[in-house]
Amino acid sequence: MLTRYQIILLTAVWGIITMPRGSAQIRHTIWDTKEIYNIPSYETVSTDSAIGIIYKGLSYKGQAKNVYAFYASPGTLSGNRSADRQLPAVVLVHGGGGTAFKNWAIMWAKKGYAAIAMDLRGNDFNKKHIAGGFDEPGSGTPYFTITPKLNEQWMYQAIGDVILAHNLIRSFKEVDSNRTALTGISWGGIISCAIAGIDNRYKAVVPVYGCGYLFYNTAMRNDLAKLGKTDSATWVKQYDPSQYLKKAKMPMLFVNGTNDSHFYLDSYAKTYSSVKNRNLSVKIGLKHNHSYGWANKEIFTFIDSYLNNTAPLPVMQAPKFSGKKITAGFKAVVPVDKAYLNYTTDASALLKDKKWERIELKTENNKITLPDLPAGTRIWYLSVTDSREMEVSGDLQWKTVINH
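Above: the chain sequence. Below: its structure as tokens.
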């Protein structure tokens, strides 16, 4: 007869055997390899307010690749990690030319989060190549490459290493593995969009600037076309977020500027329209770089509402039309202070060059009413700002030019 200890042991073993290897979404992608479900080993290389680590990424050129990252938490800031308990966690993905940003991880730790910010270019935080890291040709990241070996393609490695960073931070005893979020800036936004449909363990995802449909109308379209018809089609099938976003189940917040010089509003609209559970924050004049990107306060408010049940962002509802009159409702837990019509009458051919204007509107009973659009309006959207100065937007609207 089995002892109680033997029963417990057998139950544990059986649980390991029958436990799914990971997300069903991952199992249907090119990342479905045994190593993608591992908790990567790592070594600590520096100890400070944020801890520098090197963890094992995907196999690359015959061995596990080294990936530099910073890990920060309230405990690393105070010097007492034993005080960390059941922390929500966030995975931070840099954009083009970026690295493992220590200050980004610390910013989230100050908000009560565990945070990991990794370098996806084979470098340390000083942008110096590390032994065993990804090999960039020259000083440029090979975003658009289709090589004979899948595991030598940068996007394959980058997405895989973000998944492994998620595995790692979820394994830390101080982290609540059921409360994790993902956010990325620019190219990190592209990766975040793709991963939203690949790794369904996240409770919230916030891509900033970056979007999908890179082949449609973005600053990267010409770079993609340089691959040639066959390889560009392969790249899109393997890596463009348009292939994955419809599978995203978690809530997503899309943050961008009206005149972003890399990710244009039409490709952006196609991207967010693929996601049912979404919110938007499109801002006139938002500049494009890492510090401007992660400084948007809506990112934390959105993530925290899903991980810590704090007050959510307002949510805009679809506009309704009655002749020229437009009405749109919104839901808001925190009172809304202001509402705006954001629009452009600019006939410039390039979306990034259009001049945008805004008109403040009145709200009543959580509803915006607009008697008519300004003459010559070409693109427009409504937005609201709550008493915390959190700004959210309705869907972008394209309109045949209106002349009164």
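The chain is about 25% helix and 25% strand.
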